[in-house]
Every structure is written in structure tokens, then in C-alpha cells.
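Section 5: illustrative case.
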């Protein structure tokens, strides 16, 4: 199973937060977060009103990811609140299963605090522990200031 155990990290401002895999039952909170991020961002390709997932579908997605050895959902938790989400999914065919794509979104109030860097580090560490992963692709829009290296 692809589960990221709970780990404590620190934002740039010193605030402690937790990184861990998403859990079934958190679909409503994550769905609300994702819709908010979609409504606030000019950089995502999906707009909030286009997202038709139900809470049940989101919970099933988390359960499916947890049951698959090569998929993972990572959530940062600040003061008990989910403030972002990262997903990783391998290629669907045998010849592309060694590589995968990931995406991440972070609530605007928590962007620029290093949470994304911690999420990426956790993803790399998880992928390195899985011998089947050799590549991870990030697709980003060039003008997106939040996804730059720092």
C-alpha cells in the first residue's frame, strides 16, 4: 500500500505542520479546499464549477490510492486543517509504469511557506523507496510564481 506515515515538518515561519497520506473520510474537507483553490487560482486548468466530484467519489479516490502500491496522495495539515494536496500516479501502461505525473495545490494563505518543497521532498523519498519509480514529471505553467525553486 502507498501510505506516507505522518511526519512533522516546519514552515519557513517556524510553524509546525504534518505531512501524511490522505485518509478515507476526508473527502468533504479536501473537496472544499480544492474548489476554493480552483476559484482563487489563475493557473489551474479546471475551474471550480467544472469539478463534479462528490464527497463519496473523493473518499473512494483516497481509498483507491491507498490500496495501490504506486499511487499516493499527500496532505499537509496545519492546526488540524488540510491546507493542500499532492497526488502521484504512475503511467498506465507497462512501458510507462516506471514514471508518473504529480500535481500539487496549496491554499493561498499557506503558499510561499515551504510546504510545497516539503511535499516534493516527501514524494521523492517515497519514490526512492519504491524501486519501480524512476521518473516523476511536473507540468507547470511558466508564469506561476509559486512553483519556482527557492
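Designed sequence:
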Amino acid at each position: 500500500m502507498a501510505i506516507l506515515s505522518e511526519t512533522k515538518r516546519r514552515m519557513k515561519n517556524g510553524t509546525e505542520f504534518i505531512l501524511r497520506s490522505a485518509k478515507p473520510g476526508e473527502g468533504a474537507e479536501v473537496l472544499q479546499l480544492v474548489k476554493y483553490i480552483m476559484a482563487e487560482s489563475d493557473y489551474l486548468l479546471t475551474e471550480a464549477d467544472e469539478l463534479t466530484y462528490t464527497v463519496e467519489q473523493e473518499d473512494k479516490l483516497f481509498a483507491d490510492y491507498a490500496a495501490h502500491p504506486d499511487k499516493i496522495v499527500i496532505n499537509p495539515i496545519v492546526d488540524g486543517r488540510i491546507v493542500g494536496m499532492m497526488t502521484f500516479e504512475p503511467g498506465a501502461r507497462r512501458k510507462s509504469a516506471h514514471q508518473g505525473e504529480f500535481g500539487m495545490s496549496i491554499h493561498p494563505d499557506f503558499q510561499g511557506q515551504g510546504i510545497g518543497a516539503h511535499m516534493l521532498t516527501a514524494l521523492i523519498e517515497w519514490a526512492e523507496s519504491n524501486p519501480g519509480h524512476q521518473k516523476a514529471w511536473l507540468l507547470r505553467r511558466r508564469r506561476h510564481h509559486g512553483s519556482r525553486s527557492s
